[in-house]
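Lecture notes, structural biology module. Today: joint structure prediction for complexes of two components.
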Amino acid sequence: SQQGEEDPQALSIQEGENATMNCSYKTSINNLQWYRQNSGRGLVHLILIRSNEREKHSGRLRVTLDTSKKSSSLLITASRAADTASYFCATDSWGKLQFGAGTQVVVTP
Amino acid sequence: GAGVSQSPSNKVTEKGKDVELRCDPISGHTALYWYRQSLGQGLEFLIYFQGNSAPDKSGLPSDRFSAERTGGSVSTLTIQRTQQEDSAVYLCASSLSRPEKLNTEAFFGQGTRLTVV
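The predicted structure, tokenised, for the full assembly:
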């Protein structure tokens, strides 16, 4: 079973635009993480936000977390063609990591 | 090693055969995860090992699937009597996460692409 659900399933934008994707989950968590996947193979960790944090930034990434609504958002600012990938949220409940279905982002030059 | 290593990277097997997939986690990582990803889909949780604790096997889809982790390091995922629906990419990840130290990221291997014909 999957803990998180991402929205939208797919997103197509032009370079320079911002990309926003959302994640909803069901159970209590210690933290929520976002990962990126290129070409259907290994995932790369992007950012982690703890359950007592509401917002976190890392370079062009901004993550928010609303534990009352059990939701998170990932914003990629000033997108580049190299940002084309699938993005997954993952909830960490006492070390057990569960992933959502992902958002496929395509950034066109 | 420098990262999580999975072998083989690709495996084609005949329906009904057994297969073993191997994962070498990052040295010192106590947590190890197996996931399955079908084409264009999300990651389906299979099993989670944490130190010497009993593994969380709640994601294994049937009793044809089993996994072990020897010596708290290398893990093997075994699929018996493979079926065509078992075709997918099997991903392994490890992390430093443990009950007294949460909030750590997971590092993924490149996966094993299993094709059952």
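Point to remember: The radius of gyration of chain A is 13 Å.
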